[in-house]
Structure formats: structure tokens, C-alpha cells
Amino acid sequence: MSQVDFKNFEWNPELIERYNLAGPRYTSYPTAPQFTDAFGSDDFQAALAASNASQAPLSLYFHIPFCAKICFYCGCNKIATGDTSRCAPYLERVYQEMDLVQQQLDSSRPVNQLHWGGGTPTFLSHQQMRELMAETGKRFQLRTDDQGDYSIEIDPREIQPDTLPLLRELGFNRMSFGVQDLNPKVQEAVNRVQPRALTEDALHQAKELGFRSLNLDLIYGLPHQTPETFAATLEEIIEMNPDRLSVFNYAHLPERFKPQRRIKAEDLPSPEQKLIILEESISRLVDAGYVYIGMDHFAKPDDSLAIAQREGRMHRNFQGYTTHSDCDLISMGASSISQVGPTYAQNHHDTEGYESAIREGRFSTLRGLKLSQDDLLRRAVINQLICHFEIDGDAFAQEHGIQFGSYFANELEALAQHEKDGLLQRKGNHLIVNPAGRLLIRSICMVFDAYLDQQGLGKAFSRII
Known about the structure:
Blueprint: E1 4-5, E2 10-11, H1 13-19, H2 41-51, E3 58-64, E4 66-67, E5 79-80, H3 87-102, E6 110-118, H4 126-139, E7 141-142, E8 149-154, H5 163-170, E9 174-180, H6 184-189, H7 196-208, E10 214-220, H8 227-240, E11 244-249, H9 271-287, E12 291-294, E13 297-299, H10 304-310, E14 315-317, E15 320-322, E16 328-332, E17 337-340, E18 343-347, H11 351-359, E19 365-370, H12 373-388, E20 390-392, H13 393-400, H14 404-407, H15 409-414, H16 416-420, E21 424-427, E22 430-433, H17 435-438, H18 441-446, H19 452-455
Main location: cytoplasm
GO molecular function, one term: coproporphyrinogen oxidase activity
Keywords: 4Fe-4S, Cytoplasm, Iron, Iron-sulfur, Metal-binding, Oxidoreductase, Porphyrin biosynthesis, S-adenosyl-L-methionine
């Protein structure tokens, strides 16, 4: 493949081959392998209470782990079941967890962002959805002006004609639809048969109801995909005209995720084919008018995410790219991760462990971390680079009270090769990621990660591309 310029980034196969190593996605820094069980329920409780001093608005996340069917590619924390009665006791624990949170928080802090994820949140009955939102409103200051970002993940196969109107009534104004691929052979191989009409009808209904920033998720690297078949899927997706698109790389890890054992390795596209799919997909989306936000994400120029990136307000957390950098993220449900001030706290992964702790009247914190001052500085640098592709070290130094050039002297020296290869340019303490470096931004961020070389944690992550 020849070098290709995609407007705001550049495809350079030689550099991709050289820098395509394993590395974190930086939804947090330090990353999850650094979390420790020395951080427990009492520590999270103290972090919540301390956060009131900032009066920061809140972001709430609810993990609904239930699915009607297993998608073979899935690596999420989920429970496949046809027994909808299992939701009731789980929701009771979620309400109790909210009570525990409410005891520590100033209830006047507004909820500027709310998200239901999973699993499949629409596995809940309509009455349970109403109840969950009502119980949330009893404990937190939900916005009633439709100006917050209230979003939910949707499986178009698991909704009724009146589901989307209900969600709009409950206050949701954003949605993410799982699609993955529209090719029937690929869908059958991953146990997710979802005709285009299902997705398209749901998308049109959502637009008519006034939902904004509708996102579609795609996955490349699935069985039986070829550059040609995925290009055909992409053309159909572009016709559907979503506001945002996520194009994720499938990581085949059957030793970690049992459902993936149903996928035959010989049916997967080769690494070379995956790179062609990615290259052609990015080129096509940019040609279609989407802005390359970074990592796997694309948005229309007038979408709030693209606007936030242009204005320097974008942030990255466990939910990916977000426009709400000022919020404390409080997450509820099994496996969910909170980010409150200088701390991270993760709940028990399994529902049994989660529910047991909550029944005993304590937070279900399995592990977490209180960040050091060095962690906070590096987190700020990495967030700036991965969201905005540049950092003004002098302005950063003034804001944080350090000498940027001396504090990060080793890192700046390590970036000399990146600079020589054209991934970035350095003007004093001002680092600017070049178009060729945007696709490899994780490699640049890894230079500022104090833990990778120290403990060899790069082996715990998937490849950058």
C-alpha cells in the first residue's frame, strides 16, 4: 500500500508496521492492571465524600449485564439468559448501591451525563426501565431541560415499537446501536443475525423522536470478512447517515473469552486484510464527511464530539471519548468502574460478588487506586495528546506548577525517534502530532506511561492497530 493522506491524518504502512505494538487504550491512566485490592470499600466511600468539595457535576453509569443471546465476539461482562426475572434482584442491589452513594454525595450536584450500558440495557422490561430512572431521580439531581447527555446502548433486535418513545420520555437523548456488520454470512458466524431494516428503522424512529448524536458500532476482523464485504457494509452504513461511528478492531482471545471459542480462527481475515479494511474504511468515512476523532471514532463536523475536540474540551474515560471532562464518574452495577477525583474504583465482576457486598451494606469495591501527583500529571498529558493530538508544555507547566522540559526530560528524549520518523514535531516544549502519528497516538502516549517498562505491562494489551 502506498502512503495515503486522509486529510487530518496519514496512512504510512512502514510506520504502522514499526510502531504497531501492544499498548493500552488509555480509557484511564494508570490503566486497570495497576488497580489494587488494597483500595477497598472504605477508600471509595472516602473519595465520594471528598469529591463534594469540588462541586463538580456528575456522570452516572449503570451496567446492565443481561443479554438474551450471546454474540460470539463479545468480551463484555454479561449474562446470557432468557429468564427476565433475574433482573429484579439485580436492580434492587443497584438501588441499594445508589443509597450508599447518596449518603456521601451532595445531592444538589447536577447529573450532566448518564449512560446505561451492558449487556443489553433494553433487556429490562419497560416497567423496570421506568423504575430504574425513577429511582435514580429520587437520589440524584437529574436534568429536566434535555441539555445533559443521557445515552443508552441499543440492540435493535431487542426493542419493541414503543421502546424508543419510552426511552425518550424517560429523558434519554443519545443512543448507540450495535451493528458490527451487515453481511449475512458474517452475522451468522458471530450469532448476531440483524437485517439492515431492523437497524435502519430504529435509527429513523430515533431521529423522528428527537434523539441526537446517534452512534453505530462496527467491528472489523470478524470471521468471513474481506475488504470487499466490509466496504459494502460501510456503504450501507453511510447511507443510514449516523452522527457518529465507532469502528472497532476485533481481538480474538478465546482463552480469555469463552464465547469466542465458537469462532474458527481459520475463518478470520489475515492481519494484512485487517489493515486493508481499516485503511479503506478510514479513507471512505473521511471522504463521506466524517471527522476522524481518534482511535476508533468518527463524527460529523457539527456533532458535539467534533466541536468539543476543535474547542479543546474533549476528554477520555472508561466510556471512551466524552465532552464532559469536569464530571465525577460514578458507576453502578457489576464490574463498573468509577473515576472520582484522584481515584478509580471497580466493582466485583460477577453479579454474585457484587450483590453480596451490597446486601451487607457496603460498596462492592473489588479493587481501585488513589493516584499520586505523578500519576495525575501523566494522566493530564496523555489525555491531552489522545484527545487533541498536541500539548503546549509551557502552558501545561504553568497550570501544574512544574518545569515541563525537566520533569519529562526522559520522555522528550524518547520521543526523538517518533519525531525523526515524522509522527510528531517538537517546537520547544510544544508537541504536535503529525497526520502520520494520529493513527499511532497510543504509541506516543505510551512514552509517558511510567508503568509499562517498569512491569512489562505492554503484554497485557492488544496491538495498537
